[in-house]
Every structure is written in structure tokens, then in C-alpha cells.
Amino acid sequence: MARFPEFVQIKEVGPRDGLQNEEKRVSSTDKITFIDLLSESGLQEVEYSSFVHPKWVPQLSDAHEVGQKIKRFPNVRYSALVPNIKGLELALEAGIDGASVFMSASETHNKKNINKSISETFPVLFKVVREAKQAKKHVTGYVSTVFDCPYEGRINPDKVVAVCDKLLECGVDDISLGDTIGTAVPPQVENLLNVVLSRYPKEKIILHFHDTRGMAIANILQALEYGIFRFDSSAGGLGGCPYAPGAAGNVATNDVLYLLHGLGIKTGIHEQKIQEATGFIQSKLGKPLPSKSFAAMANELLG
Ligand code: HMG
Ligand code: MG
User: Which end of the chain, N or C, is surrounded by fewer C-beta atoms within 10 Å?
Assistant: First the structure.
């Protein structure tokens, strides 16, 4: 047991990464209820929406209203995705505790996702991070396609650390490494963490797995062995990236909690509350969400 961290922090990304890929529009009122239910669970951070161009992600075009109307629990950091200064300014008006900037280790995915080359992205993010830090906000830098890219295939860890180095130079507080299309298996996690952790302290690193092939829990177990103690996940396994074909939802918060609590690792999060929030958003989407622990726990309650 000593090999695992004692405490793990979860960032709930369902209201952002989850909903951004759902075709059925969820009303702002229902998003607000969903986020408030999540906040009651003891989560440390909720990424509540995204201040990207509304044409690119129509589901989240109500980010401003949602940000203004959610309840603010004092122990929760409310963050949002911001691609540029315009997004940051809108996010600051709506009220954020944290800004998440994002880019990709793959040139093609970066271009398709944010319409810029990797080298064109850094000056934009440099200004965003500087302004966000001046406003005293926490800033996370997401790096997408750290294992595989839907357009370029396998990504060399050297490309990943080149982007991480630049993001840290820009001034981000920490980095979330994304398995955007959910293709990685544990040896890839091992390979990347060997490189990443020889360069940065583990406190700076968050892992963000999509569960397209059902490997996310195995990958998290692998990362826990390296002492990684921060993960992103979404209630019920909602989600995906609209600019990464075939990408399924994030690993389900419900499944991650079942694993962590089963390993005796503390999270400060009540599984039952996550269950309630998941049940709520599932009823609004009108389709079963992929989390197996969610389904099993819901059946136990019924039976
Ligand atoms: P662009 O078209 O290159 O933008 O898009 P632009 O700077 O040339 O501006 C064009 C117009 O958009 C202008 O308006 C701007 O004002 C407006 P006009 O003058 O023509 O009337 N504009 C904006 N409006 C509202 N909010 C803004 C904004 N910015 C410019 N923030 C842009 C560039 C980055 C905006 C666009 O490509 C975009 O919004 N991309 C977002 C794509 C996205 O959200 N992808 C999913 C999230 S990433 C993800 O899911 C991965 C992650 O989960 C990690 C993982 O899994 O790996 C994080
Ligand atoms: Mg994602």
C-alpha cells in the first residue's frame, strides 16, 4: 500500500469535457443543478464550462450565465477552459477561480482544435497566462494527444515535454496530460511518466484519461504507482473531444472513486453524491452513461 499516494485529488470535468461532446442540448438551468450537485460531493475542483468560440462548441455557449448562477462552495475551485484573451476576459467577468489553457503535442490536432500551429499558440497562451496570474487565478495547462493522435499516430514523449517546457515558461501552475482519444495502455503511461517525472515534480502533473477502449482505470493504477495523485474525470463517463474523431468520454468519476476507495486511498469525495449528480444528468440526456460502477450502484439501490 505504501507505494500508492494516501490522498488523491479529482477534478470533475463532466460539465465541460463531458457536455461539450453531447449533441442533445442541456438547458442552462439543468447544467447549474448538475454543477451544484457535484459541488456538494466534496470535489476539490469542478471545470464548469468553456469560453471558446460558441460556433466551435455550441453546447457551452451559455458559459457566462452558468458561471454567474452556480452556487460557489468555498472549498471548490471553479475553473473553465479558455483558448485566448477574449475567452479569458469573458471567463473573468463570469467568475472563475481557475483558467485552463489548452493545446496539443500533435501539430495536426492542435490546428484542428484551435486553428493555430503549435508555435503560433505559445504567444497567445503566454498573454492569457500572464493576465490570469495577474488576476490571481490558478492556471492549468492541458496538453492533448500525449500518447497518440488521431491524425499523426504515436506521439514521442520528447514532443510532449517540449510543449510542457514552454507552458511552464508561460507560467502555468500545473499541467494536465491528456489521453485525448483513449488509446494508451499502461506501458505507454510508464514510458511517458519516466520521461516527465525525470524533468518535473509529480506535484505539477495531472493525468486526463478518456476511456474509449476501457483502459483508463488500468492507466490510472499505473500512474498511482508513480505517485501521481491528481486526475481528471467526468460523472458517469460523459464526454469526448469534438475535434478528435472517435474519442469517447472521460474516465468516469464513479469508477475512479470505486478504485481509489477500494485501494484505501482517501479523496474526501462522497460517492453517493456523485451518484446523484450522475443520475440527474443522465435523466436530462435521456440515455445510459457508460460508467459501470454508476450502473451497478444504481441497480443495487433499486434491488
Ligand atoms: P479562430 O476562428 O481562429 O479565432 O478560432 P480568431 O481569433 O481568428 O477570431 C475569429 C472570431 O472569433 C472573432 O470574431 C473573434 O472575436 C471570435 P469576429 O471578429 O469574426 O466577429 N472569438 C471568440 N468568440 C468567443 N469566445 C472566444 C473567441 N475567440 C475568438 N474565446 C478559437 C480560434 C480558439 C477561438 C477556436 O478555434 C475555438 O474556439 N476552439 C475551441 C475548440 C474546443 O473547444 N475544443 C474542445 C476543447 S479541448 C479538449 O476537449 C481536450 C482536453 O479535454 C484535454 C484532452 O482530452 O486531451 C482539454
Ligand atoms: Mg478531454
Answer: C
Distances from the Cα of 11 to the Cαs of 191, 209, 296, in angstroms? 24, 12, 23
Q: Is the distance from the beta carbon of residue 21 to the nearest atom of ligand 1 less than 6 Å?
A: no
Is 164 catalytic? The answer is no
Ligand 1 center from residue 55 Cα (angstroms): 8
Other CB atoms within a 10 A radius of the CB of residue 287 amount to: 9
Q: Is 78 in the pocket of ligand 1 (CB under 6 A)?
A: no
Task: Provide the pLDDT for residue 244.
Answer: 67
Query: Per-residue pLDDT tens for 217-264?
Result: 999 999 999 999 999 999 999 986 667 677 789 999 999 999 999 999
Map out the domains of the chain as residue ranges.
Answer: 9-302
Task: Catalytic residue, from 149, 164, 170, 241: name it.
Answer: 241
Give pTM, 2 decimals: 0.97
Atom of ligand 1 nearest to the CA of 145: 57
**Topology at the third CATH level for domain 9-302:** TIM Barrel (3.20.20)
